[in-house]
Design goal:
The structure is a single chain. The strands form five sheets. This protein has an eight-stranded mixed beta sheet with strand order 1-10-12-11-13-16-14-15, sandwiched between helices. Strands 5-4-9-6 form a four-stranded antiparallel beta sheet. It is an alpha/beta fold. Helix 5 packs across helix 9, helix 10 packs across helix 12 and helix 11 packs across helix 12. The protein is built from twelve helices and 19 strands. The structure holds zinc ion.
Length: 434
Protein backbone atom coordinates (compact mmCIF):
# COMPACT_ATOMS: atom_id res chain seq x y z
CA UNK A 1 0.00 0.00 0.00
CA UNK A 2 2.81 2.38 0.85
CA UNK A 3 4.59 1.62 -2.41
CA UNK A 4 1.41 2.38 -4.35
CA UNK A 5 1.17 5.71 -2.52
CA UNK A 6 4.78 6.47 -3.44
CA UNK A 7 4.00 5.73 -7.07
CA UNK A 8 0.86 7.90 -7.14
CA UNK A 9 2.25 10.77 -5.08
CA UNK A 10 3.95 12.81 -7.85
CA UNK A 11 0.91 12.86 -10.18
CA UNK A 12 -1.02 16.12 -10.50
CA UNK A 13 -4.60 14.97 -10.09
CA UNK A 14 -7.76 17.02 -10.20
CA UNK A 15 -11.50 16.37 -10.51
CA UNK A 16 -10.97 15.83 -14.25
CA UNK A 17 -8.04 15.46 -16.62
CA UNK A 18 -5.07 13.32 -17.50
CA UNK A 19 -3.59 13.13 -13.99
CA UNK A 20 -6.78 11.47 -12.83
CA UNK A 21 -6.71 9.08 -15.81
CA UNK A 22 -3.06 8.23 -15.22
CA UNK A 23 -3.86 7.46 -11.58
CA UNK A 24 -6.73 5.14 -12.52
CA UNK A 25 -4.57 3.41 -15.15
CA UNK A 26 -1.93 2.71 -12.52
CA UNK A 27 -4.65 1.17 -10.34
CA UNK A 28 -5.62 -1.04 -13.30
CA UNK A 29 -2.30 -2.84 -12.82
CA UNK A 30 -3.59 -4.01 -9.44
CA UNK A 31 -7.32 -4.56 -10.04
CA UNK A 32 -9.45 -4.76 -13.21
CA UNK A 33 -10.86 -1.27 -12.81
CA UNK A 34 -13.14 0.04 -15.55
CA UNK A 35 -12.65 3.68 -16.54
CA UNK A 36 -15.81 5.64 -17.24
CA UNK A 37 -15.95 9.00 -18.99
CA UNK A 38 -18.81 11.46 -18.56
CA UNK A 39 -18.99 14.38 -20.98
CA UNK A 40 -18.58 18.03 -19.91
CA UNK A 41 -21.98 19.68 -19.62
CA UNK A 42 -23.80 16.51 -18.52
CA UNK A 43 -26.47 17.42 -16.00
CA UNK A 44 -26.09 15.40 -12.79
CA UNK A 45 -28.86 16.25 -10.33
CA UNK A 46 -28.34 19.95 -9.47
CA UNK A 47 -24.78 19.99 -10.84
CA UNK A 48 -23.14 20.06 -14.27
CA UNK A 49 -20.03 18.06 -15.20
CA UNK A 50 -17.36 20.78 -15.54
CA UNK A 51 -14.87 21.45 -18.28
CA UNK A 52 -11.81 19.23 -18.25
CA UNK A 53 -8.64 20.72 -16.79
CA UNK A 54 -5.14 19.75 -17.87
CA UNK A 55 -1.84 21.33 -16.93
CA UNK A 56 1.63 20.93 -18.42
CA UNK A 57 3.70 23.55 -16.64
CA UNK A 58 3.46 26.68 -14.51
CA UNK A 59 5.91 29.12 -13.03
CA UNK A 60 6.61 32.62 -11.82
CA UNK A 61 9.97 33.94 -13.03
CA UNK A 62 11.79 36.91 -11.48
CA UNK A 63 13.61 39.64 -13.44
CA UNK A 64 16.66 37.36 -13.74
CA UNK A 65 14.53 34.68 -15.38
CA UNK A 66 14.74 32.33 -12.38
CA UNK A 67 11.69 30.24 -11.48
CA UNK A 68 10.83 31.50 -8.00
CA UNK A 69 7.61 29.44 -8.01
CA UNK A 70 7.85 26.20 -9.98
CA UNK A 71 5.06 23.70 -10.67
CA UNK A 72 7.72 21.10 -11.50
CA UNK A 73 8.92 21.19 -7.89
CA UNK A 74 5.43 20.76 -6.42
CA UNK A 75 2.08 20.54 -8.17
CA UNK A 76 0.54 22.21 -5.11
CA UNK A 77 2.12 25.48 -6.29
CA UNK A 78 -0.73 26.03 -8.75
CA UNK A 79 -4.29 26.62 -7.60
CA UNK A 80 -5.98 23.48 -8.94
CA UNK A 81 -8.23 24.34 -11.94
CA UNK A 82 -6.45 27.65 -12.64
CA UNK A 83 -7.28 29.11 -16.04
CA UNK A 84 -4.31 29.62 -18.41
CA UNK A 85 -2.21 32.76 -17.88
CA UNK A 86 0.85 34.11 -19.71
CA UNK A 87 1.68 37.67 -18.66
CA UNK A 88 4.19 39.97 -17.02
CA UNK A 89 3.07 41.86 -13.97
CA UNK A 90 4.31 43.75 -10.94
CA UNK A 91 4.41 42.07 -7.54
CA UNK A 92 1.47 44.17 -6.31
CA UNK A 93 -0.81 42.69 -9.00
CA UNK A 94 0.61 39.20 -8.66
CA UNK A 95 0.23 39.37 -4.88
CA UNK A 96 -3.57 39.09 -5.20
CA UNK A 97 -3.09 35.67 -6.76
CA UNK A 98 -0.62 34.31 -4.19
CA UNK A 99 -1.67 32.12 -1.26
CA UNK A 100 0.44 31.11 1.72
CA UNK A 101 -0.12 29.41 5.03
CA UNK A 102 0.57 31.80 7.89
CA UNK A 103 2.19 30.03 10.80
CA UNK A 104 3.99 27.38 8.79
CA UNK A 105 7.04 28.93 7.12
CA UNK A 106 7.87 26.01 4.80
CA UNK A 107 4.50 24.53 3.95
CA UNK A 108 2.60 25.10 0.70
CA UNK A 109 -1.19 25.22 1.02
CA UNK A 110 -3.50 23.25 -1.32
CA UNK A 111 -6.15 25.36 -2.99
CA UNK A 112 -8.73 24.76 -5.70
CA UNK A 113 -11.04 26.86 -7.82
CA UNK A 114 -13.23 24.30 -9.60
CA UNK A 115 -16.41 26.22 -10.08
CA UNK A 116 -15.13 29.79 -10.50
CA UNK A 117 -12.74 30.59 -13.34
CA UNK A 118 -9.69 32.16 -11.73
CA UNK A 119 -6.00 31.49 -11.27
CA UNK A 120 -3.40 31.55 -8.55
CA UNK A 121 -0.22 30.19 -7.04
CA UNK A 122 0.38 28.67 -3.63
CA UNK A 123 3.76 29.06 -1.95
CA UNK A 124 5.44 28.98 1.42
CA UNK A 125 5.70 32.05 3.61
CA UNK A 126 9.46 31.78 3.23
CA UNK A 127 9.24 31.91 -0.57
CA UNK A 128 6.95 34.93 -0.44
CA UNK A 129 9.29 36.78 1.92
CA UNK A 130 12.10 36.37 -0.62
CA UNK A 131 10.11 37.89 -3.52
CA UNK A 132 11.35 41.39 -4.37
CA UNK A 133 9.23 44.24 -5.62
CA UNK A 134 9.95 43.75 -9.32
CA UNK A 135 8.27 42.59 -12.49
CA UNK A 136 7.50 38.89 -12.83
CA UNK A 137 6.76 36.61 -15.75
CA UNK A 138 3.70 34.55 -14.92
CA UNK A 139 2.82 31.38 -16.83
CA UNK A 140 0.16 28.76 -16.27
CA UNK A 141 0.31 26.43 -19.26
CA UNK A 142 -3.06 24.78 -18.72
CA UNK A 143 -6.24 24.11 -20.65
CA UNK A 144 -9.82 24.27 -19.45
CA UNK A 145 -11.95 22.87 -22.26
CA UNK A 146 -14.87 20.63 -23.02
CA UNK A 147 -13.85 17.05 -22.30
CA UNK A 148 -14.82 14.45 -19.72
CA UNK A 149 -14.98 13.62 -16.06
CA UNK A 150 -13.28 10.26 -15.48
CA UNK A 151 -13.86 7.78 -12.69
CA UNK A 152 -12.96 4.17 -11.98
CA UNK A 153 -15.38 1.42 -11.07
CA UNK A 154 -14.75 -2.20 -10.16
CA UNK A 155 -17.63 -4.58 -9.52
CA UNK A 156 -16.78 -7.82 -7.79
CA UNK A 157 -19.62 -10.34 -8.07
CA UNK A 158 -20.75 -12.21 -4.99
CA UNK A 159 -23.32 -14.96 -4.40
CA UNK A 160 -26.12 -12.40 -4.20
CA UNK A 161 -27.00 -9.12 -5.90
CA UNK A 162 -26.85 -7.35 -2.54
CA UNK A 163 -23.91 -4.98 -2.60
CA UNK A 164 -21.34 -3.37 -0.39
CA UNK A 165 -20.15 0.00 -1.75
CA UNK A 166 -16.57 1.10 -1.12
CA UNK A 167 -15.81 4.64 -2.20
CA UNK A 168 -12.76 6.88 -2.13
CA UNK A 169 -11.86 10.18 -3.73
CA UNK A 170 -9.04 10.39 -6.26
CA UNK A 171 -8.97 14.10 -7.10
CA UNK A 172 -6.20 15.54 -4.91
CA UNK A 173 -2.72 16.16 -6.34
CA UNK A 174 0.36 15.40 -4.21
CA UNK A 175 -1.43 14.77 -0.92
CA UNK A 176 -0.93 11.46 0.81
CA UNK A 177 -3.29 10.95 3.71
CA UNK A 178 -6.15 12.91 2.19
CA UNK A 179 -6.65 10.96 -1.00
CA UNK A 180 -3.89 8.37 -1.50
CA UNK A 181 -4.27 6.45 1.77
CA UNK A 182 -7.93 5.71 1.04
CA UNK A 183 -7.10 4.65 -2.52
CA UNK A 184 -4.35 2.28 -1.35
CA UNK A 185 -6.54 0.62 1.30
CA UNK A 186 -9.49 0.28 -1.12
CA UNK A 187 -7.26 -1.40 -3.72
CA UNK A 188 -5.96 -3.83 -1.10
CA UNK A 189 -9.48 -4.63 0.10
CA UNK A 190 -10.42 -5.45 -3.50
CA UNK A 191 -7.39 -7.69 -3.91
CA UNK A 192 -8.14 -9.61 -0.71
CA UNK A 193 -11.86 -9.98 -1.43
CA UNK A 194 -11.21 -11.20 -4.99
CA UNK A 195 -10.05 -14.54 -3.60
CA UNK A 196 -12.43 -14.74 -0.63
CA UNK A 197 -15.87 -16.42 -0.58
CA UNK A 198 -18.44 -13.64 -0.88
CA UNK A 199 -22.13 -13.51 -0.06
CA UNK A 200 -22.20 -9.85 -1.07
CA UNK A 201 -21.10 -8.26 -4.30
CA UNK A 202 -18.63 -5.40 -3.83
CA UNK A 203 -18.61 -2.20 -5.84
CA UNK A 204 -15.47 -0.07 -5.65
CA UNK A 205 -15.65 3.55 -6.77
CA UNK A 206 -12.54 5.65 -7.34
CA UNK A 207 -14.11 9.01 -7.99
CA UNK A 208 -13.37 12.72 -7.85
CA UNK A 209 -14.78 14.12 -4.60
CA UNK A 210 -18.31 15.56 -4.57
CA UNK A 211 -18.88 15.87 -8.35
CA UNK A 212 -17.79 12.24 -8.89
CA UNK A 213 -20.15 10.87 -6.25
CA UNK A 214 -22.98 13.07 -7.52
CA UNK A 215 -22.30 11.94 -11.09
CA UNK A 216 -22.23 8.24 -10.17
CA UNK A 217 -25.38 8.48 -8.06
CA UNK A 218 -27.31 10.38 -10.73
CA UNK A 219 -26.39 7.81 -13.39
CA UNK A 220 -26.99 4.73 -11.24
CA UNK A 221 -30.21 5.36 -9.37
CA UNK A 222 -31.49 1.98 -10.54
CA UNK A 223 -28.70 0.24 -8.60
CA UNK A 224 -29.17 2.00 -5.29
CA UNK A 225 -31.66 -0.57 -4.00
CA UNK A 226 -28.97 -3.25 -4.11
CA UNK A 227 -26.57 -1.32 -1.88
CA UNK A 228 -27.00 -2.75 1.60
CA UNK A 229 -23.87 -1.33 3.20
CA UNK A 230 -21.15 1.13 2.26
CA UNK A 231 -17.91 2.62 3.44
CA UNK A 232 -16.08 5.78 2.45
CA UNK A 233 -12.34 5.40 3.00
CA UNK A 234 -10.06 8.38 3.41
CA UNK A 235 -7.35 9.70 5.70
CA UNK A 236 -6.45 6.26 7.04
CA UNK A 237 -2.65 6.53 7.00
CA UNK A 238 -1.74 9.11 9.66
CA UNK A 239 -0.64 8.25 13.18
CA UNK A 240 -3.96 9.20 14.82
CA UNK A 241 -6.63 6.87 16.15
CA UNK A 242 -9.30 5.37 13.90
CA UNK A 243 -12.61 7.21 13.60
CA UNK A 244 -15.77 5.65 12.23
CA UNK A 245 -18.42 8.14 11.18
CA UNK A 246 -21.91 6.68 11.24
CA UNK A 247 -24.23 6.70 8.24
CA UNK A 248 -27.07 9.22 8.12
CA UNK A 249 -29.50 6.57 9.40
CA UNK A 250 -27.20 6.05 12.37
CA UNK A 251 -27.93 2.47 13.49
CA UNK A 252 -27.51 0.45 10.33
CA UNK A 253 -25.80 -2.91 10.21
CA UNK A 254 -22.50 -1.42 9.04
CA UNK A 255 -22.64 1.23 11.78
CA UNK A 256 -23.07 -1.52 14.35
CA UNK A 257 -20.50 -3.83 12.71
CA UNK A 258 -17.89 -1.04 12.63
CA UNK A 259 -18.52 -0.09 16.26
CA UNK A 260 -18.28 -3.75 17.28
CA UNK A 261 -15.05 -4.38 15.37
CA UNK A 262 -13.39 -1.22 16.71
CA UNK A 263 -14.49 -2.00 20.27
CA UNK A 264 -12.95 -5.47 20.09
CA UNK A 265 -9.85 -4.34 18.16
CA UNK A 266 -8.12 -3.18 21.31
CA UNK A 267 -7.17 0.03 19.48
CA UNK A 268 -7.94 3.55 20.55
CA UNK A 269 -10.81 4.75 18.38
CA UNK A 270 -13.81 7.02 18.21
CA UNK A 271 -17.30 6.71 16.80
CA UNK A 272 -18.65 9.91 15.26
CA UNK A 273 -22.27 10.76 14.60
CA UNK A 274 -23.25 11.60 11.02
CA UNK A 275 -22.93 15.21 9.92
CA UNK A 276 -23.60 16.72 6.48
CA UNK A 277 -19.96 17.75 6.15
CA UNK A 278 -16.82 15.82 5.25
CA UNK A 279 -16.31 13.53 2.26
CA UNK A 280 -18.72 11.73 -0.05
CA UNK A 281 -20.73 10.23 2.80
CA UNK A 282 -22.56 13.58 2.46
CA UNK A 283 -23.82 12.62 -1.00
CA UNK A 284 -24.55 8.97 -0.09
CA UNK A 285 -26.32 10.30 3.00
CA UNK A 286 -28.36 13.04 1.33
CA UNK A 287 -32.09 12.63 2.15
CA UNK A 288 -33.11 11.50 -1.35
CA UNK A 289 -30.33 8.88 -1.50
CA UNK A 290 -29.99 7.88 2.17
CA UNK A 291 -27.73 4.88 1.72
CA UNK A 292 -26.26 3.11 4.76
CA UNK A 293 -22.75 4.38 4.09
CA UNK A 294 -20.34 5.23 6.91
CA UNK A 295 -16.78 6.52 6.79
CA UNK A 296 -13.52 5.16 8.13
CA UNK A 297 -10.71 7.66 8.75
CA UNK A 298 -8.04 8.36 11.29
CA UNK A 299 -7.62 11.96 12.48
CA UNK A 300 -10.66 13.76 11.05
CA UNK A 301 -9.94 16.14 8.15
CA UNK A 302 -9.40 19.74 9.09
CA UNK A 303 -8.32 18.90 12.64
CA UNK A 304 -4.62 18.31 11.93
CA UNK A 305 -2.33 21.13 10.75
CA UNK A 306 -0.93 19.10 7.83
CA UNK A 307 -4.43 18.84 6.27
CA UNK A 308 -4.50 20.32 2.73
CA UNK A 309 -0.84 21.31 2.84
CA UNK A 310 2.43 20.05 1.40
CA UNK A 311 3.11 18.51 4.82
CA UNK A 312 0.52 15.80 4.04
CA UNK A 313 3.40 14.02 2.32
CA UNK A 314 5.01 10.58 2.29
CA UNK A 315 6.37 11.18 5.78
CA UNK A 316 2.87 11.77 7.15
CA UNK A 317 1.48 8.32 6.32
CA UNK A 318 2.69 5.06 7.83
CA UNK A 319 2.65 1.56 6.39
CA UNK A 320 1.59 0.00 9.70
CA UNK A 321 -1.31 2.44 10.06
CA UNK A 322 -2.49 1.58 6.55
CA UNK A 323 -2.23 -2.09 7.53
CA UNK A 324 -4.37 -1.58 10.62
CA UNK A 325 -7.01 0.28 8.61
CA UNK A 326 -7.05 -2.55 6.07
CA UNK A 327 -7.41 -5.17 8.81
CA UNK A 328 -10.27 -3.28 10.48
CA UNK A 329 -12.05 -2.78 7.15
CA UNK A 330 -11.79 -6.47 6.29
CA UNK A 331 -13.04 -7.38 9.76
CA UNK A 332 -16.08 -5.13 9.28
CA UNK A 333 -16.86 -6.83 5.96
CA UNK A 334 -16.34 -10.22 7.58
CA UNK A 335 -18.98 -9.37 10.21
CA UNK A 336 -21.39 -8.28 7.45
CA UNK A 337 -20.68 -11.45 5.44
CA UNK A 338 -21.28 -13.70 8.45
CA UNK A 339 -24.09 -11.88 10.19
CA UNK A 340 -26.90 -14.38 9.83
CA UNK A 341 -29.98 -15.27 11.82
CA UNK A 342 -30.65 -18.75 13.21
CA UNK A 343 -33.41 -20.67 14.91
CA UNK A 344 -32.71 -22.95 17.87
CA UNK A 345 -34.04 -26.42 16.95
CA UNK A 346 -34.10 -27.52 20.61
CA UNK A 347 -35.70 -24.48 22.20
CA UNK A 348 -37.40 -26.14 25.20
CA UNK A 349 -34.79 -25.77 27.93
CA UNK A 350 -31.09 -26.06 27.19
CA UNK A 351 -29.98 -28.95 25.01
CA UNK A 352 -27.56 -31.33 26.71
CA UNK A 353 -24.22 -30.23 25.33
CA UNK A 354 -22.18 -32.99 27.02
CA UNK A 355 -23.81 -35.88 25.18
CA UNK A 356 -23.07 -34.13 21.90
CA UNK A 357 -19.42 -33.61 22.79
CA UNK A 358 -19.94 -29.87 22.93
CA UNK A 359 -19.24 -29.45 26.64
CA UNK A 360 -15.61 -28.42 27.26
CA UNK A 361 -14.95 -29.39 23.65
CA UNK A 362 -12.14 -26.88 23.52
CA UNK A 363 -10.49 -29.09 26.14
CA UNK A 364 -8.94 -27.12 28.93
CA UNK A 365 -8.01 -24.14 26.83
CA UNK A 366 -8.34 -20.82 28.58
CA UNK A 367 -11.16 -19.78 26.27
CA UNK A 368 -13.18 -22.98 26.80
CA UNK A 369 -15.54 -21.19 29.14
CA UNK A 370 -15.88 -18.38 26.66
CA UNK A 371 -16.83 -20.76 23.86
CA UNK A 372 -19.44 -22.42 26.04
CA UNK A 373 -20.71 -19.01 26.99
CA UNK A 374 -20.93 -18.13 23.29
CA UNK A 375 -22.88 -21.37 22.61
CA UNK A 376 -25.29 -20.63 25.47
CA UNK A 377 -25.88 -17.12 24.13
CA UNK A 378 -26.42 -18.31 20.57
CA UNK A 379 -28.81 -21.08 21.68
CA UNK A 380 -30.75 -18.79 23.97
CA UNK A 381 -31.13 -15.91 21.55
CA UNK A 382 -31.57 -17.73 18.24
CA UNK A 383 -35.33 -17.41 17.96
CA UNK A 384 -35.29 -16.10 14.41
CA UNK A 385 -35.35 -12.51 15.57
CA UNK A 386 -31.77 -11.92 16.65
CA UNK A 387 -28.85 -11.92 14.25
CA UNK A 388 -25.39 -13.06 15.32
CA UNK A 389 -24.35 -9.39 15.56
CA UNK A 390 -27.34 -8.73 17.83
CA UNK A 391 -26.15 -11.60 20.02
CA UNK A 392 -22.53 -10.43 19.99
CA UNK A 393 -23.62 -6.94 21.02
CA UNK A 394 -26.02 -8.20 23.69
CA UNK A 395 -23.57 -10.67 25.21
CA UNK A 396 -20.53 -8.43 25.01
CA UNK A 397 -18.67 -11.29 23.30
CA UNK A 398 -16.59 -10.93 20.17
CA UNK A 399 -18.54 -11.57 16.95
CA UNK A 400 -16.04 -14.19 15.83
CA UNK A 401 -16.61 -16.36 18.91
CA UNK A 402 -20.38 -16.04 18.44
CA UNK A 403 -19.98 -16.99 14.77
CA UNK A 404 -17.82 -20.02 15.64
CA UNK A 405 -20.33 -21.12 18.28
CA UNK A 406 -23.17 -20.87 15.75
CA UNK A 407 -21.15 -22.85 13.24
CA UNK A 408 -20.49 -25.69 15.71
CA UNK A 409 -24.12 -25.75 16.86
CA UNK A 410 -25.31 -25.86 13.25
CA UNK A 411 -22.99 -28.80 12.52
CA UNK A 412 -24.54 -30.63 15.48
CA UNK A 413 -28.08 -30.06 14.28
CA UNK A 414 -29.02 -27.64 17.03
CA UNK A 415 -29.44 -24.58 14.80
CA UNK A 416 -30.97 -23.87 11.45
CA UNK A 417 -30.28 -20.76 9.44
CA UNK A 418 -33.39 -18.68 9.08
CA UNK A 419 -32.95 -17.08 5.68
CA UNK A 420 -36.37 -15.47 5.61
CA UNK A 421 -36.02 -14.03 9.09
CA UNK A 422 -35.56 -10.30 9.45
CA UNK A 423 -33.44 -9.46 12.48
CA UNK A 424 -34.94 -6.82 14.72
CA UNK A 425 -33.45 -3.56 13.46
CA UNK A 426 -32.93 -2.13 16.91
CA UNK A 427 -30.80 -5.05 17.99
CA UNK A 428 -31.15 -7.50 20.79
CA UNK A 429 -34.18 -6.98 22.98
CA UNK A 430 -32.57 -7.79 26.27
CA UNK A 431 -31.09 -5.91 29.14
CA UNK A 432 -27.52 -4.72 28.84
CA UNK A 433 -24.98 -7.08 30.29
CA UNK A 434 -24.38 -5.95 33.85
ZN1 LIG B 1 -9.28 17.11 0.79
Amino acid sequence: MFRLIEELYPICRSITGDGLRETLRLLQRQIPLELREVRTGTQVFDWTVPKEWNIRDAYVKNAKGERVIDFRKSNLHVVNYSVPVRRRMALAELREHLFTLPGHQDWIPYRTSYYEESWGFCLSEKQLAEMKDEEYEVCIDATLENGHLTYGEYFLHGDTRDEVLISCHVCHPSLCNDNLSGIAVAVSIARVLQSAPRRYSYRFLFIPGTIGAITWLSKNEDKLGNIKHGLVLTGVGDAGRLHYKKSRRGATEIDRAAAHVLKHSGQRHEILEFSPYGYDERQYGSPGINLPVGRLSRTPHGTFPEYHTSADNLGFVHADKLGEALAVSLEIFSVLENNRTFVNLNPKCEPQLGKRGLYRMVGGAADAGLSEMAMLWVLNQSDGKNSLLDIAEGSGLWFESIRQAASVLQEHGLLRECSGCVPSAAGLKLGKKS
